[in-house]
Amino acid sequence: MNRQLHLNLFIHGRGHHEAAWRHPAASARSLTDIRYYTDLAVQAEAGLFDSVFLADSLALGEDVAHAPRAWLEPVTVLGALAAATRRIGLIATCSSTYTEPYNLARQFATLDHISDGRIGWNIVTSWLAAAAGNYGGGGQLGHAERYARAEEYMKVVTGLWDSWSDDAVQDDRAGGHYARPDGIRPVNHAGPYYQVAGPLNLPRSPQGRPVFVQAGSSETGRRFAARHAEAVFTAQMEKATAKDFYADLKRLVVEEGRDPGQVVVLPGLSPVIGATEAEAQRIARELNELSDPEVGRQRLSGRFGGHDFSHLPLDRVLTAEDFPDPGTVEAARSRTEVIIGLVRREKPTLRQLLGYLAGARGHFVTAGTPEQIATLIEDWFHDGAADGFNVMPPVLPSMLEVFVAEVVPLLQRRGVFRTGYGGDTLRAHFGLTRPDVRF
Ligand SMILES: Cc1cc2nc3c(=O)[nH]c(=O)nc-3n(C[C@H](O)[C@H](O)[C@H](O)COP(=O)(O)O)c2cc1C
User: Fold this and answer.
1) Residue 272 burial by CB count (10 A; 0-12/13-18/19+): exposed, middle or buried?
2) List of residues 6+ apart from 71 with CB closer than 8 A
3) DSSP-assigned letters across all residues of 281-314
4) What average pLDDT score do residues 253-282 get?
5) What is the tally of structural domains in the chain?
6) Residue 364 bridge partners (DSSP)
7) Residue of the nearest CA to atom 6 in ligand 1?
8) Which residue CA neighbors atom 21 of ligand 1 most closely?
């Protein structure tokens, strides 16, 4: 069978462009209306997407006066999406730094039961400095410690999801036996960060455990992904760096003794689609004209752990010296490397840089016809830059509608994308095996 392209829909605000929420083509629904999310998931399912994904951060963004920084909590939303859909995978973000492992294990196993095996967990260590203020008020944990905790966290939650054998439940009403005692065992984890007895108070779920998704691209982040991730999101601003990331991650996966075919790499892609290239460019310009550089400047500061960029004039050409060294950034390290890489390569002014980041926060932005978008997708897919894409429509739902109606049929006709769901679980969609119980 031909290698299958994978498509994930990244639902974010009213679209990934910073000014999308103000665009006339954006949804009129409020961001706290669950139908906004169920409509998008149903549409992505109609387009035979592998999955939909909800990001999360654990503090209110400072620029809420000028940007829609409020949304429904993802794990809860997944319950509603599971009820509104049948086949599409459902991925939610949850923090390994600020969530008790026993709670997370219960929530994701429950969702996997509710959805008949369609759940994924985007494992984040929570780079946003402000989140620390909502969880005990101490300062932000350093980059290295966040990942060290996450390593132990993975041991605990995987142990909990493995604390019931697949055949532990007997449900023998006549004989009065609900579960085989030898099919359930404690975890008894005692480590530097966590003490968890277990077992989980829930039978093993259809997929065994949620699909592990991850999106850290720093050196430490890649190692973590190579050990644990089954799907990896990444922000790449050009094909060359996407190819480097892809090759390096697959190499690290092999080094960790894993099958590289069991890790799908999904770079972000934010396509502005028009009937003609000129029309697509016009829509892209319209969106950029709607965005506010001061919102962009505040967001840039957040990416660099609160670094103050207020002194920088908007129309002076930037140099790397205008930015802190990424190695000193405790926030989202790899994203700062992507941004400084762009400054070195393109020598933009601050206004130009903020205009580019307004598109999709450092992910690949392109404007073109459905044919051009399909050709770009095929090119990265066949040329070792991607196993699929994290589709980030600049405006929702309009740019998802045109992607499903125009780009998906082209990809199907070119034989790279499914024409029907082959399986019922997210693991089946991604071509991943079901993990055996390590009992
Ligand atoms: C597509 C994508 C989605 C992400 N979603 C979230 C999220 O929902 N919450 C979060 O705190 N971080 C999110 N991140 C950030 C990553 O989890 C990670 O913190 C960041 O990429 C920096 O990792 P690094 O320091 O290892 O480079 C996302 C990153 C990408 C590329």
Assistant:
1) buried
2) 13, 31, 32, 54, 56
3) HHHHHHHHHHS-HHHHHHHHHHHTTT---TTS-T
4) 98
5) 1
6) 269
7) 55
8) 216
- Is 325's pLDDT higher than 90? no
List Cβ neighbours of 376 (8 Å cut-off, separation of 6 or more).
269, 366, 368
Helix%, strand%, coil% for the chain, nearest 5: 45, 15, 40
User: Measured between alpha carbons, how far is residue 150 from residues 94, 224, 256 in Å?
Assistant: 12, 9, 17
Q: Which residue has the least CA distance to atom 29 on ligand 1?
A: 215
- Residue 310 included in any domain: no
pLDDT of residue 67: 87
Kindly report, residue by residue over 380-422, the tens digit of the pLDDT. 999 999 999 999 999 999 999 999 999 999 999 999 999 999 9
Q: What's the whole-number average pLDDT of the chain?
A: 95
Give the tokens for residue 368: 């073109």
**Ligand 1 atom nearest 392 alpha carbon:** 1
Q: How far is the CA of 332 from the centre of ligand 1 (A)?
A: 7
CATH number of domain containing 369: 3.20.20.30
Q: Is residue 409 part of a domain?
A: yes
Structural domain includes residue 224: yes
From the CB of residue 144, how many other CB atoms can be counted at a distance below 10 Å? 10
Report the C-alpha gap between 25 and 12 in whole angstroms.
Answer: 15
Which residues span the domain enclosing 404? Answer: 6-282+362-430
Residue 277 forms part of a structural domain: yes
Q: Write out the E strands in 173-283.
A: 177-179, 189-190, 195-196, 211-214, 231-234, 264-273
Residue among 233, 270, 330 to mutate when testing ligand 1 (max atoms within 8 A of CB): 233
- pLDDT above 80: residue 331: no
Conformation bin of residue 136: beta by default, left when phi > 0, alpha when psi is -120 to 50? left
Token readout for 323 is 């930015």
- List, for residues 166-212, the tens digit of each pLDDT value: 999 999 999 999 999 999 999 999 999 999 999 999 999 999 999 99
- CA nearest neighbour of 216 among 229, 202, 200, 198: 229
pTM: 0.96
Encoding tokens for residue 196? Answer: 């968890």
